[in-house]
């Protein structure tokens, strides 16, 4: 089979694009979107052909770049957004240690005792991650509770006042303004300062754990709990913060992708654990999302961090709430205990639960489809920060208005006695009664969910629940993807709990009020079905819900519901997180290669030709290769340096762009005439200090004389990179790549000569579509 | 560095040994202990040297062989047993698909829909595994409950009768005889028919999931739940049973190591899930023990099987117990619900729990050390089945006698009213009272554990608990390793619960009966500490105990206790399972290479020289290589067949012994003169039908003419075996090997020429000992 040259699509690119990128290269904010971050070792030749049927316009992220540079575009509205595209702007993380001489010398110097110290440090860091994540969760909980309490009290007083006097429109205004102003603050921060903080952070963490470097994903900033945990972990484990410009000179051993990722896993788990009081669920979340190459010790540490996080949260909150040391209600979002005696289920209900799973799958697919169109709309038309802030404020105000109108129109009055409503709104109800619709809208969503689960039968009017589900569904769908830090978990649970309870009430009507039809139980299943239908997680979600309800026996029906919802939902459209990852054109590697991809071999998948370096190379050549903005390779095979022959030579090792840059920066080379002189020695520390933000090649000055010097790469290259023969099938290559967390995989022929290179993008572009194997096109941006 | 030739130790081997082995080769019972199962591709030369300090006597399993063949030995008692030895009798499983042309053709023929069918089949099999495991658990539960009930009723009536009349020694005799006769039946089955069924099965399943083929480990037989689940899984997934000689002609696609192992994981998880009502714990058990290379879909299936298993068990047992469809008490061993309100813990108790962990670690280490000496004794002196049966009966009788004497001597009477004792023995107590010591001994251990957890304060006399702990500790230690199917889980829990409760009672004396010192809580922590100190599992055990108690908040202290117990215990001696694995000289691969092994490279680790085959090879050569009993390689690198040169040639592929045997059996070769003729075509089915018990080479007749034919391996070899360069460090080789579940890893030089081969034994022999890196010697047996 002939080698197939890789194609990349160029069309009508504004020349200023490249200027923008190059300008961006030197400013920290744009770091990672510039050319320095594109692509693995791959040569892109604009002249290479396009396969028929492939779209040629690839300016996917033009909008984003425009957003950053605020330059007028000639044709911003004509850009078709296309998810059948893989962006090259995302770098890969490298979980394979570069086993060069420096590394081996250090590892050999370290004795057994020192390794134990390193191991103890890992545990200490995990404990710190757990404690800090728990504390952050406490802080968030207390602030949210107080702010929400303040808001609801103010609005309630106002409504109570104006109910009598008339002029409730003023109350509406007050509520909408309060909502909008709070959202404005959050939105401005996100839109103008840190765009990665938008959304729930889960897609970003998914990508990071998968091995994709999302710029700024673990830099200091606020965000929902999972993301917070990850950020804390990245900060602590490196013993420094680039955002705060502080280096504590500790934990330097952990300054590499491998170690950092392990800690981020622990942080994400601690975040889930704190949010739901689900330490095991947290561990499984981390495993489900990231761990293709984990081990027992790592899992223990992750579990340790999770446990500490829940424990810290519990201890502090128990003190704050006055009942010190009562550690029985873990988690920010506590579903309340489901008692098996009161709310058991029978085997006859299993088909009903499965039916609810089907409903959840369909509703979830609808939610995702609507959100997809909305996201496309946003990408096309709402890319200025000010527009984004206005949209966020608009959503906040509309939410308040819809809530208000619904409450106003509702005639569902319930006796106030014996109910657990925090802010009962009397409105037009009789004395001693409250408006039931208000409990749903006029409450933090976390509390509303618990109320829907646990309020006794008869607390809600079916009409109220139906209207609430309908309105909240669309509002939540509109909210997800706004430029605020907000997730989809709680809204999904709330929607699901509402229609689940409605379903339960209908059932009890049908069955003439049988004892088994407790609507709370159906609210729980509905919540699981809706959440499962939207995010399509199963294992970790089952465990999270089991732990949040504190009931093991509910595990089986919850799992059934989640699986049904996933299968049904997958039939229509992808999960919400996967959809957003795909819309960002992230080269995400799934668990396995597409099942029908055995027909492809490494020969067809790999990028070729590969830019190789000789073992003893001219400095000028290295600089030129690194400066070549059209290729931007990150890893270079090192071949035997035989100056007398021009033929392809045997593979000797692999060296990374980052390593070359450190070598050039420290002037590690000798004059050609003095090749016998010893090069300057570097230490591993020099590489670690530069991690993770290595300077761009443009910032390193190499004089004309220095260009003629020679650089000996033997000591710095990885002498044993993983290789595959050309005949290896795509699934085989994929397995090796995924299991070891590789960034570069060299393809060699029978004589160990380099014939190609496989990087993450080469594997991620093959996908199983509706009509079989699909191939995504690659985009430079 | 010079290549280090591999050594194997031979000394004073009875020539009949080899005859035994060869004879065994053709009988199914001995399959796997004969020469066909030894070693990877490695040449053992008896002339190779021994390093100083290495023991030269390696006839570890002589005893076992003797046990099987019953031949008199000249010097059976002189054999020093040595755990610094690695046996070559264990084959590896192969989790790397041989990607030869046949395989690729099949995979390419299968379209997307067919893959979906395969996937659905996997789920169906997992559901069946879950259901069957659950049913087996039910069966065991009901039988044990009834048998034990019968036994206790008979003995109780007898004791009640003779307490008045005098002559209790007859009751003692009755009890001891009953115990001994039940144990005799079990022991005879194990000792004479299926020796692998001895013990808990957990070490064997650990090894299997690790990738070691333990003969008969998943053949049909009875055994504790974890093992039962695994056996069921192996049986169902292959669609046939070799023990029962039935082939249902279904699930043929799954007849390979990769698929089978996945199902066995699910089976083991289902077993744990059924035993403890801990579906998540079951999944984590499988992951903790086996999964270095798992993925999400597999984990889901494992979880599914676990859930189904608990659910089945629950449903059937709820019907059996009359309260149909009450699914709230999952698991055979139910710890009873620990209610947070009644039995909460405070932060001040954490140090106390940690102290209990320390105690558990020390006691566990003591238990293991004693059991170690006992096992050594057994290996040396008790190797005849009749002796083993007698020992088992002796232990059973002594257990009854000790229990009887303790009950007899006890003067701890408790009021019978309000207690939950199943078989209250009055003995010399006043009317309306029962003997408290009898509740501990005169009960199934499962029930005793629950009683210790939940009986109200004051139910037990400290003296009673102390004596019970002491006696039970030694009895349990003596019992583990007998030739009966019996685990260590429940006895450990019981010992720990007893001393934990004692500890709790002492605390409440010290603290003048403060409310927080509920002895049941300390019984739970003691049980965790003791079990952790013995088996040294942490993550899965924490989750299992969390699920068995139905209480999430206890997770944190249980984890602390388990970790402390593990750290303290590891300081003294290994975990019980690991110890037994090591005593069997199993080449077990841990999670990571020893930390200080960076100084070793593939060059030093690999076996060399390697027996290679040419791509077109003479049949006679193949037969000779396969028949060479001194080497018994299982995988052969295939090199370019250039008849004109004798130099080392480039690697082209890898072929397995099993594949060659199938080729020879089907006469897939052509005459040398007719090389252009097409060889007979084989189908993948021909290989699958022979799996997993390929015939030995001796059973295949190859005539002298046929020996001169040529065999073309191109179509059958794996053309892209994984390789490493000689410079790769041991941790790097280890990671590749472990992450992909390899069996053979070819070491090549810079020109892709074969220089060595790394197999499981080459990696497993490096171990971190007390004084740094240790190297085990290899033994042919």
From TrEMBL, chains A, B:
Keyword Transmembrane: yes
SMART domains in UniProt: CBS
Topology of this chain in the membrane: Multi-pass membrane protein
A matching Pfam family: CBS
Region Disordered, residue ranges: 1-43
Membrane-spanning parts: 123-144, 172-193, 263-285, 297-320, 350-370, 390-409, 522-546, 552-573
Family of this protein: Belongs to the chloride channel (TC 2.A.49) family.
Protein name (database record): Chloride channel protein
Organism of derivation: Gallus gallus
